[in-house]
Amino acid sequence: MSVLKINNLHKEYGRITAVNQLNLTIEAGSVFGLLGPNGSGKTTTLGMILGVINPSAGNFSWFDESMETNSRQRIGSILEKPNFYPNFSAYKNLQLACLIKETNEERISEVLKQVGLFERRFDPFKTYSLGMKQRLAIASALLANPEVLILDEPTNGLDPKGISEIRQLILEIALSGKTIILASHLLDEVQKVCSDFAILNYGNLIYQGKVDEGFGDEMIIEIASDDLELLEKVVREYPNYISHKWQKQAIEIKFSASTNASEVNKWLVQKGIFLHHLSIVKKSLEQQFMEILDEHA
């Protein structure tokens, strides 16, 4: 079941195209990452699907409904840095949030416990660390018990401890059954918390897939034989084959992580193909990400 469908969503600011004919479908229960460099159109996309930025063209629907329905009440979001009254406690700030959201205050203690701030609930907001402020913002977004939670750069500006805490919190929220959509320029963040992702660059969708398929720990092997065209055809039949691309005088093959290079060689020999070159190519996740960006530069 899909919670969000985006159809040819487009946004221009004068001569600048911020988002270009974007098409996406996000499934219920997923943790979906919008990944891309700063200025790639992530925040603009989130702003449009939340109804705070008017698209130049295209449309989208939540839960197969229009934004004019009550679907907005089923979505919690954080688009900007946490903004609370500095002298008010976390509890008092959430009471005000309940008034704005027209939500019962009964949820306040529950969400504070969920984000790990219950013991500090009566301390002034100004005494909180950046990580605690971000957790309070997430608590506020959870007050109405939304089905979908949208987070824009949730770990931006945090120290390593704060980053780890927010990532763990996101995973715990996801386990409760909520769909999470987060935008980030950090590959590591998307790889560690998301199940699905899409890469935006200069407003264009350049890649979409599962995290464990797109940025998993695959085995990448470079191989060559006297007949590269036949080698390309045959290697596609290998059970763990994922994808391949041509090099100058070889073919680089991506297999699933469990693949053994020597087993690939034995299998090819059984098919009558003898390699004169085989090497394991080790690539970091960052290298894989940069290759995708370079391919669509």
Features:
2 domains, alpha/beta, Rossmann fold, Alpha-Beta Plaits, 6-stranded mixed β-sheet
Structure, explained:
- This protein is α/β, with parallel strands linked by helices.
- The protein folds into two domains: 2-214, P-loop containing nucleotide triphosphate hydrolases (Rossmann fold, 3-Layer(aba) Sandwich), CATH 3.40.50.300; 219-295, Alpha-Beta Plaits (2-Layer Sandwich), CATH 3.30.70.100.
- It contains ten helices and 13 strands.
- It has helices spanning 42-49, 90-101, 107-114, 130-142, 160-175, 187-193, 211-214, 228-235, 261-270, 285-295; strands spanning 2-13, 16-27, 31-35, 57-62, 75-78, 148-152, 179-184, 196-201, 204-210, 219-225, 241-246, 251-255, 275-281.
- A six-stranded mixed β-sheet has the order 5-6-7-3-8-9, sandwiched between helices. A four-stranded antiparallel β-sheet has the order 11-12-10-13, with helices on one face.
- The chain is elongated and about 75 Å long.
